[in-house]
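cron nightly-structures :: item 1 of 1
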Amino acid sequence: MLALPIIGVSAADLTLRSAELSTEQSLSRMLGTADAAVNGSYTAGPINQSPDGSSSAPVGGYKDYDPSKTPREKPGPIEAALPAGAQILKDSGGYAKVRTTHGLLDTHLRELDTHSPLVEGMLTFDRGRRPEVAGEVIATRAFLRDSGLYVGSSVTPRGATSPYKIVGSYELPDELERPEIIAPPGTLMAPLNKAVAESGGRAVTPDDTYLIKVGGAGVTWDAVKAANAKGLLVISRAVILDPPADSDVPLYKDEPKSMFERDGNKVVETAILATVAGLAMLEICLLAGPAFAVGARRSRRQLGLVGANGGDRRHIRSIVLSGGLVLGAVAAVIGTVIGILLTVVLRPVLEDTLGNRFGGLDFRPLELAGIALLAVITGLLAAIVPAVNASRQTVLASLTGRRGVRKANRVLPVLGLIAVAAGAAIALYGTTSRLGSTVVAGGSAIAELGIVALTPVLVGLFGRLGRWLPLSPRLALRDAVRNRGRTAPAVAAVLAAVAGTVAVATYQQSNDVQMRQEYRADLPHGTGLLEANENAAYKEVPALREALGKQLPLTQRADIERLVVGKPSCESYATDPGCGRVEIITPKEQRCPLYEDTKGIDSFPPEQRRELRQDWRCQESRHGTQHSVLVGDEKVLSVLAVTDPGTVAALKAGQAVSFDKRQVKDGKLTLRIITDPGEDDIMHGRYDETPGEDKALPVHVAPDSVEGWGIELILPPSAAKSAGLATAPVGSYFSLDGIPTSEQRQKLDGEIDRMAVEASLRIEKGYEGDNSLVMLALAIFAGIVTIGAAGIATGLAQADAEADLKTLAAVGAPPRVRRTLSGFQCGVVALMGVVLGSIAGILPAVGLRLTEQRVAQTLHQESIEQGFSTVTEAVPFVPISVPWETLGGLLVVVPLGAALLAALVTRSSGALARRAAG
């Protein structure tokens, strides 16, 4: 019992310390043997960066940054800005689909000279050899596992005209689960993009990083700032190993350093960790204490002999405490050794679970010694109460087996009552405090300790129920009440475990109810949408539709198409030659002013923002979809449960239907056909300034009460044809005759996988909570602790009640009384602990939910005052829901199970012997 937590904690300590890399190890995995890595920044113009290169911002900070005023010309090549004479290695990477034995796998494609000495430490080669010529690649072990391929087989990126032979495998020490392939520079992405461009597919956009080695002192902080002035982001080995002072970092002058720190609140985290550790030690003491008491009770004759031979109370206490100290020390050694051995043996499993290789086994002797010391201290603390009780026994009582008369402690209940009141008050204050959950957790812990101190008194109150019980349960309850010294710790241990379980279960249940209330359906219940995720797959859409109708129980299918400008394979916002798109042009006077200003909504005072939030022009849809402009017939409206007669009649008559009245003026909607989009209109959001051909279409506006489910405009095929608009199939809406089974979904997914098409399937089934497994795990944990604590108390009760059992047997009691009494003794302890724990566990859950409710209401009110929300929006719903099923299981199943288990393992008969006099 003492060694188990030491095993877990020592193994966790060694695992976490081993997973924490030193600065040199981290740099080796990032940079290899290079002095620095250089990237282009995501913002145009000069930047400032943090010393480690993890954060950057435009010069002057984001508050004064206006993307629309940045230069529109493309930056020059990074190579031109690198220091002359430096050793340079280009590392290019991008994502693409790769054909595998199972279908398609999203894979990171990389071009890198793996023979360069600069990559040493970045990759760990497993088997095979490194690629040398075009057509050869190496793959990560994760890619080989997920793809079903192997060293020696061939792999083909989608769109490529020729396969690549896998000549070796490797792994990324920091990303073991990344599927990736590496080819020699210039042999993978350039040929792939050329082939894709010819077929009209989507090109791979590489992200280039340059590893440089300059020698000498490396890349200094001054060199990093010079590169920042050219818009380059630098990760420098020399700067990370010897970072500059904060006063020398321009980034921290523009923006506060705290904005870029990710360490969180260390004080709060330490306080929470200390609280959890303290409660864990308390739980172990409560469980181990009765076990030491059993040992002391069974050794009372030997302890009595010590007293008869001149030993006083100090000697008795020392003997029992020494037993706790020895057991704690043995548990510390055994637990630490087993924890270390488990970590060493399971190192590959742990590394795979964490997703990165250890830098080495990092033993911290002081930390391991401190963890081991916890076992010693816990054993000593658990033996204190049994030692004191054993020392209070008279020599005569110890030698004759008499229990004597014990006086109840009157101070402990008073302290417990004060702790309960203080803890409840602190938890209540926490619901209004800035620290919130931390204060609530601390107050709840204090209150729980108070209830633990009150346990002897509460156990006594339970004894009043004995008068209404049959013989065996009455004897069990009265025995528990009369011997509170052994009953109370076991009940308190059960109380602590159940309280934690009930607190988490109540919070989880309340959160689940909240999520159910806040859930917003994407489609009407029982309907779905199947669509190709990539426009280049438009030729496979008919096959997708056929598979859909074959595998799922459809009642209706509504096929939809998208508008096309240029090549049908172009993605929606592609800027490649021959690609374009269609935009709905909202009349300027009907646009929301909050989004028209280039500086954003912050340029409006809060009063004006609040006023504009009520404006009909600023009311946004709650739904979204990949294609908001569709071509389809009235079947689409039927599947989407749009039953408005005027809307259905208009679409059936060949008139377009709009679900957003802001886009319609005088009964007409403007579509702009953009044939040469360029990049600027997308980056700066000024689509209405992009030149194109405008087409004004007569439309019917659906009433505000009609839900469009993210669709802005539906064009009937005849209207699209008469307007000269090209279309391409994209997918289908459908309604179902019942929710598909898992087998049907798997069959459909299998067919889609065999087609090697990237498609998404959405079926609206309503809110689906996933907390059942959590609840079950919590109930099992509480049950195990409860049975363990109750079993210990039952063992002590049997040691105490042996004389009573002999008397019962002597007066003719049936043999089953011993078994029945043992079961009820265990059940009584379990029931008392579960009842008290259920009551105690409600407090922290309620406190945390009240804290969340206050925070949500405060944010909601501030959002209204600042004009970010409307007063008509619902007040946040933060309920408190009690998990009655979990509580019922704890209150009924756990005590009953404990009683039955204790009855089963107890012998029905014992040796009949003469009872000691007195």
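cron nightly-structures :: done
DSSP finds 27 helices and 23 strands in the chain.
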